[in-house]
Amino acid sequence: MNETQVIYRKYICRRCGNCCRWPGLVKLTAADTARLAAFLRLTVEELVAEYAELHPRRTGLVLKSRANGECCFLAGVNRCRVNPVKPAQCDGFPNRWQFPGWREVCAAVTE
After folding, report:
1. 79-108 pLDDT per residue, tens
2. I need a surface site. Which of 21, 23, 87, 90 has the fewest CB within 10 A?
3. CA 61 to chain centre
4. Residue 14 and residue 71: Cα distance in Å, rounded?
5. Is 88 exposed, middle or buried (0-12, 13-18, 19+ CB in 10 A)?
6. What is the distance between the alpha carbons of residues 111 and 108, in angstroms, rounded to a whole number?
7. pLDDT for 44-68, tens place per residue?
8. Closest listed residue to residue 59, CA positions, set 92, 90, 25
9. Residue 28: which of 9, 52, 12, 46 has the closest Cα?
10. pLDDT value, residue 8
């Protein structure tokens, strides 16, 4: 392998729910809010009022977290209530982005 080749591993989510409990912010795009609202049969305004808040830096919207830090859409035993239309940031983990220490908490396996 030469130095310009990159080994890429595709990870498959095993629905452990750990990333849904990890501290941090889930940024919402306009497309995310529209998809989530349609899926939940809410207006965008209703979705934002109930499930979003202003990013601390005032740069956009983020999902609300529960008092214990987990995602507001986490239900039951590691079930994402909005999995078919989850935000792009959630959908991209861990294949398009990762956070420091993610391998210690994530149960994803390589293809």
Report:
1. 999 999 999 999 988 888 888 888 888 888
2. 23
3. 13
4. 17
5. middle
6. 10
7. 999 999 999 999 999 999 999 999 9
8. 25
9. 52
10. 63
